[in-house]
């Protein structure tokens, strides 16, 4: 790309200019500062949701329900799900890396709607407060899926409060989506053609489409849950002529695309990490782009694969089954292209690259097991068992969290201007890969053996694999705490990073680290594609 | 995953396991292949290695199309295989014997046509195709027997069905697989598959008044016969032999009298009123449990001429 040294002139960085008072942060319109505000919230919720996961794994170390009561256990896994899905995974990459990088990668001075950007952070925080309040008042026990009629007529926990939290955070994600779409459409630098966009930007674009189109359905569904609880309107109540299955259709119409809201950004990050590590162009840029857009579109047509045994018509299930196989094709293309990108490269194994490779491996294992669940006849046996739990954790934790952390490591010098300990970072990445597999691989076997999910106590024959899984979880917990420690340390003691410590391509690396408030002193002009690496 | 599989105790189990294992082999080959190539590239093309590099293309249509189309065709094959099994799973044979299941927080209530009732246990004869007609008294549950490789949700307000043929005698775990509230994990039971002679003995020793006869008693006790019985003075449809017929409704539409229709007519009588009748029937919602509804249905069905009826059992194929 057109790296111009002019952009390395001596403007104060965004961390300094505009003042460093609390007020200056809470009223900032700078996309980079908003990204950091989000990162603080998201990190907090990640460790809160993680603490709930630790409780779940501790309880499941023994077959008897001895640590928590059944009710507390149900509230714990529900809290884990709600927090991890809506307060960590969905916003994680788009609001932090997306917010920080999309304007920088396309050569813009800020997002298209800076105030809206700040407002969506406040919405996120307000939703977070509702969720914390829900926890403090006693929690909710419906599972993150809020299935009716349990959630509407039988649960006597704080369902409405939980729904309000998720409702509000949904609007935060709609606003982020709109902002990214408009930014990419209208603020690209001169010469930044659509097919010169870095794949991360394409990923954010595809994700934003899904966010904007799918999230309103979630809002509507949660509103109906609240109305049904408050006023008994009977949409989901068979006694009033309603249908509980309708809820599942509404819910998964959002929540399956939401899976792609969580994993498309990770695919974007991985593409950046792997090209940087391989020091060459991505293999098959256009196939990579089109496959992301295909995933975004087909992702809307597969929701019924969550309902093969729910009482859905068998013919509907057949259609959802074949479409679920079809959506695996673009995912397969991506895996092959990432591997192809390594071919004839000059591979550097920085920590971000290790995270990127870890992402590819775990995403592939999650994707392949998805094929088993797409096959109706196998899903009948496997659905609602630990096989499913393991499958989606491979995609979301193995895939998305690994990519998120890889991205944080890659752009950390750009965001903070500091370098972290490369050795510790590599160690954490390896530990995470091992800990993750030890936690979740046994769960595939558990599911195959027939252990249902959301069980507070279980038959003794399942214990050995559960103990392995809990042991893995403790390793995983350490590997997540490590980056918190060494990245935190680097903020104060890390060596100063130059503008481009990874010698990477991309407009964001042509600015100083950390960048000035408006990113580019001189508007950049783009003359080539995104990954023109020289060995 | 041999060694971890639960016993194969239904006619489906070996066929489903075969597809599972085929998919497992295929996916393992793909995963292993990708990992090997990845590691090989990582070693061969590490920075500073002597490997010849030349100019790598930035894309290659033939290569990319082939790794698009080959997986696609592979997936189509797997889909077809699965579809074949799926059709079998969802199509009970006509001679299947029927058992009724009601899910209730947090227990399984079973009724046999002979009137035998059990809780958290289901006794079945070996080798006989068995169809379960299921509904829920409260929230959604899911009837899951890993050894049979089958699972089906139970919903309030509708009937779902599943079928299987037990092929091994023994006791097998029955678990609820859909989260149903506080004691979801305790909603377990067992399926006991017995040799036919043992089963006959068991049925004999647990003999009760038959399901349809119990339904007839309930028909009188709940006062149904006061209006629907012969000689009643109230103008209400005669229910003898009504099952499987088609009735015209006041809103001009037509309904087939199946399980769902009869259930709704008891619980939500105002929703589908037969043309020519006043909507005066009171709702029995909260007055009749789902088990008793099943008994009433059995009685109403028993009033028709014997012989298999074309629409029996409600052939909504779920």
Topology:
The complex is a heterodimer of chains A (535) and B (318).
Chain A (H helix, E strand, L loop, with lengths): L21 H5 L4 H29 L10 H37 L7 H23 L13 H5 L4 H28 L12 H33 L12 H35 L6 H14 L15 H29 L8 H24 L1 H7 L3 H31 L5 H28 L13 H31 L42
Helix pairs in contact in A: 2-3, 2-4, 2-15, 3-6, 3-7, 3-8, 3-13, 4-6, 6-7, 7-8, 7-9, 8-10, 8-11, 8-13, 9-10, 10-11, 11-13, 11-14, 13-14, 14-15
Chain B lengths: L11 H33 L16 H30 L6 E8 L2 E5 L5 E3 L1 E5 L4 E7 L4 E5 L4 E5 L5 E5 L5 E7 L11 E7 L1 H10 L5 H11 L2 H5 L17 E3 L5 E3 L2 H9 L22 H13 L16
Parallel strand pairs in B: 1-5, 4-10
Antiparallel strand pairs in B: 1-2, 2-3, 5-8, 6-7, 6-9, 9-10, 11-12
Written description of the protein model:
The complex is a heterodimer of chains A (535) and B (318). Chain A has 535 residues and is an all-alpha fold. Chain A has helices spanning 22-26, 31-59, 70-106, 114-136, 150-154, 159-186, 199-231, 244-278, 285-298, 314-342, 351-374, 376-382, 386-416, 422-449, 463-493. Chain A has one domain (5-510): Cytochrome c oxidase-like, subunit I domain (Cytochrome C Oxidase, Chain A, Up-down Bundle). The model of chain A has no long low-confidence stretch (mean pLDDT 94). By secondary structure, chain B is an alpha+beta fold. Helices cover 35% and strands 20% of the residues of chain B. Chain B starts with 11 loop residues before the first helix and ends in a 16-residue tail after the last helix. Residues 308-318 of chain B have low confidence and may be disordered. Chains A and B meet through helix 3, helix 5, helix 8, helix 9 and helix 10 of A and helix 1, helix 2, strand 7 and strand 9 of B.
Q: Secondary-structure element sequence of chain A?
A: HHHHHHHHHHHHHHH
Number of domains of chain B: 2
Q: Kindly identify the CATH topology of chain A.
A: Cytochrome C Oxidase, Chain A
Helix content, binned percent of chain B: 25-40%
Query: What distance separates the N and C termini of chain B?
Result: 30 Å
The largest pleated sheet of chain A is described as:
none
Strand content of chain A: under 5%
**CATH architecture group name of chain A:** Up-down Bundle
């Amino acid at each position: 790309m057109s790296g111009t040294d002019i952009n390395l002139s001596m403007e104060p960085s965004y961390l300094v200019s505009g003042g460093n008072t609390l007020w200056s942060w809470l009223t900032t319109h700078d996309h980079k500062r908003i990204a950091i505000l989000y990162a603080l919230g998201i990190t907090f919720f990640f460790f809160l949701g993680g603490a709930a996961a630790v409780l779940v794994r501790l309880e499941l170390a023994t077959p008897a329900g001895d640590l928590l009561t059944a009710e507390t256990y149900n509230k714990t896994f529900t809290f884990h799900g709600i927090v991890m899905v809506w307060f960590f995974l969905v916003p994680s990459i788009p609001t932090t890396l997306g917010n920080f990088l999309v304007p920088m990668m396309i050569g813009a001075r800020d997002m298209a709607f800076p105030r809206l950007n700040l407002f969506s952070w406040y919405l996120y925080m307000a939703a977070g407060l509702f969720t914390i309040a829900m926890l403090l008042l006693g929690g909710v026990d419906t599972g993150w899926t809020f299935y009716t009629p349990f959630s509407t007529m039988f649960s006597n926990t704080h369902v409405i409060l939980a729904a309000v939290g998720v409702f509000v955070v949904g609007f935060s994600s709609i606003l982020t989506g709109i902002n990214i779409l408009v930014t990419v459409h209208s603020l690209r630098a001169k010469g930044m053609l659509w097919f010169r966009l870095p794949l991360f930007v394409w990923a954010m674009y595809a994700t934003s489409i899904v966010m904007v189109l799918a999230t309103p359905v979630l809002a509507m569904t949660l509103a109906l849950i609240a109305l049904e609880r408050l006023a008994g309107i009977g949409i989901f109540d068979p006694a009033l002529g309603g249908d509980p299955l309708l809820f599942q259709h509404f819910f998964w119409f959002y929540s399956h695309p939401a899976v792609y809201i969580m994993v498309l950004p990770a695919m974007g990050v991985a593409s950046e990490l792997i090209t940087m590590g391989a020091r060459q162009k991505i293999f098959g840029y256009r196939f990579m782009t089109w496959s992301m857009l295909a995933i975004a579109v087909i992702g809307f047509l597969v929701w019924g694969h969550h309902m093969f045994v729910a009482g859905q018509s068998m013919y509907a299930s057949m259609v959802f089954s074949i479409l679920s196989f079809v959506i695996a094709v673009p995912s397969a293309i991506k895996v092959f292209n990432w591997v192809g990108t390594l071919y004839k490269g000059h591979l550097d194994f920085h920590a971000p690259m290790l995270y990127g490779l870890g992402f590819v491996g775990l995403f592939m294992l999650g994707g392949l097991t998805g094929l088993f669940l797409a096959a109706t006849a196998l899903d009948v046996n496997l659905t609602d068992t630990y096989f499913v739990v393991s499958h989606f954790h491979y995609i979301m934790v193995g895939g998305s969290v690994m990519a998120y952390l890889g991205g944080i490591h890659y752009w950390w010098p750009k965001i903070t201007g500091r370098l972290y300990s490369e050795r510790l970072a590599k160690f954490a990445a390896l530990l995470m890969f091992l800990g993750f597999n030890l936690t979740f691989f046994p769960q595939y076997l558990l599911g195959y053996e027939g252990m249902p999910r959301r069980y507070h106590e279980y038959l003794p024959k399942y214990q050995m694999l559960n103990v392995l899984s809990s042991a893995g979880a403790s390793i995983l917990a350490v590997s997540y705490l490590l980056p918190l420690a060494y990245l935190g340390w680097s903020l104060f003691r890390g060596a100063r990073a130059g503008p481009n410590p990874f010698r990477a391509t991309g407009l964001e690396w042509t600015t100083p680290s950390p960048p000035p408030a408006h990113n580019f002193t001189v508007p950049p002009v783009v003359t080539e594609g995104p990954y023109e690496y020289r060995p | 995953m041999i060694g971890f599989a639960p016993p194969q105790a239904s006619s489906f189990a070996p066929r489903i396991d075969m597809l599972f294992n085929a998919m497992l082999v295929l996916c393992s080959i793909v995963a292993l292949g990708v990992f090997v190539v990845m590691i090989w590239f990582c070693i061969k093309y590490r920075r500073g290695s002597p490997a010849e590099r030349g100019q790598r293309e930035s894309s290659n249509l033939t290569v990319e199309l082939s790794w698009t189309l080959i997986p696609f065709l592979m997936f189509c094959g797997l889909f077809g295989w699965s579809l074949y099994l799926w059709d079998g799973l969802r199509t009970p044979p006509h001679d299947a014997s029927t058992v009724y299941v009601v899910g209730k927080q947090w227990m399984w209530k079973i009724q046999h046509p002979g009137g035998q009732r059990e809780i958290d246990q289901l006794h079945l004869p070996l080798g006989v195709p068995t169809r379960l007609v299921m509904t829920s008294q409260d929230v959604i549950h899911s009837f899951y027997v890993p050894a049979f490789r089958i699972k089906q949700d139970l919903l309030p307000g509708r009937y779902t069905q599943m079928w299987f043929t037990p092929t091994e005698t023994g006791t097998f775990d029955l678990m609820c697989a859909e989260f149903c509230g506080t004691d979801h994990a305790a909603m377990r039971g067992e399926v006991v598959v017995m040799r036919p002679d043992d089963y006959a003995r068991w049925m004999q020793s647990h003999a009760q008044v038959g399901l349809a006869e119990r339904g007839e008693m309930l028909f009188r006790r709940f006062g149904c016969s006061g209006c629907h019985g012969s000689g009643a003075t109230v103008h209400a449809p005669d229910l003898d032999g009504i099952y499987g017929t088609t009735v015209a409704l006041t809103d001009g539409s037509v309904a087939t009298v199946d399980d769902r229709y009869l259930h709704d007519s008891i619980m939500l009588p105002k929703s589908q009123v037969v043309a020519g009748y006043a909507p005066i029937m009171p709702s029995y919602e909260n007055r009749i449990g789902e088990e008793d509804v099943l008994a009433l249905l059995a009685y109403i069905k028993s009033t028709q001429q014997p012989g298999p009826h074309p629409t029996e059992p409600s052939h909504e194929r779920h």
